[in-house]
Design goal:
By secondary structure, the protein is an alpha+beta fold. It has helices at 24-32, 63-75, 99-106, 122-131, and strands at residues 14-17, 20-23, 37-45, 48-55, 82-85.
Length: 133
């Protein structure tokens, strides 16, 4: 149907996985409906999908939850290669998630300009969370 539209997110947020083009918004929407998830951000690396997940208050971020989220995505047709739990997501002062920052820290690259970041301490928190996975 020519009137059906699927929101993929921004063009630079398209991930190639399993030979298909997947928008980060699609995967975030699936993970965001999981009952124990408060917030999520998804980034792509070279052929893999990495989800950064903030669990709801009182939820234990363990391997059981990690596998449940991966299976939940798989049942929706998306293969998430890695789930990284965070206490909060890096956001700009206006409240937008800084996926660029997540991607650069994941790749161990210089994050570049972080002047719009609402709390600079989040960079060390991210690095610490990544070192524990």
């Amino acid at each position: 149907d020519v009137y059906k539209r699927q929101v993929l997110g921004r063009a630079d947020d398209v991930i190639r996985s399993e030979g298909e083009r997947i928008g980060t918004l699609e995967v975030e929407s699936i993970i965001g409906t999981y009952p124990q998830v408060a917030e999520t951000a998804v980034v792509g690396t070279t052929n893999s999908i990495v989800a950064f997940v903030v669990p709801k208050q009182g939820v234990n971020p363990d391997d059981v939850l990690r596998n449940e989220i991966k299976n939940y995505c798989r049942n929706s047709g998306y293969i998430v290669d890695k789930v990284i739990f965070l206490k909060r997501l890096p956001k700009t002062k206006s409240g937008k998630i800084m996926r660029r920052l997540l991607k650069s820290i994941l790749a161990n690259e210089d994050p570049g300009d972080v002047s719009t970041l609402d709390d600079i301490k989040i960079i060390e928190e991210l690095k610490q969370s990544l070192s524990q996975t």
